[in-house]
Amino acid sequence: MNTELKKLRGKILIAMPHLKDPLFQKSVCYICQQDEEGILGFILNKPMDMQEQHLLLDQGFDIDEKSFETSMLQGGPVHTDRGFVLHATEGKWKNTIKTSSKLFVTTSYEILEAIAKKKILEPYAICLGYAAWTPEQLKTELLENDWLVCDIDPKLLLSLTPEERWYVAMQQLGIQNPTYFVHEGGHA
Fold it and tell me: Which CATH number fits domain 12-180: 3.80.10.10, 3.40.800.20, 3.40.1740.10, 2.40.50.870?
């Protein structure tokens, strides 16, 4: 068996139905960085009680509150005090990383200003925190069949409501009823 962890940057991890951790249960995670130290991604389907308008108003932006009623996402359990914007609009903001040919991650104040002024096109998501694994940790979770890895377009997922993302991701893989999955799997 090949023990190397395949390139995951730009791919989606879909939690298998048996994964019971409340944060990762039925989660869809976009992987945006991978190196020898670890893997970093954002959960795309765990809305928070806080809406975008709260963040933008707190930062002093003058906005039409009804335009920003989308919930921010709980991006993961690591550094939940830090904000990240996943976006498809290319711009010249500070602290931007191109994660794939279709998505960027930005952590600068300027991206919030662009969102407030509607200079950034949807789809985008504001995440607080991120998910992180060591290479060995994620390799173990993959071998235990906790995650499916796929190439679904993250822009497609971001254009859906967070509640739809896990089911649509499964359907994109041809899985119409994920409840039929069992925890045990084979490795040839």
Answer: 3.40.1740.10
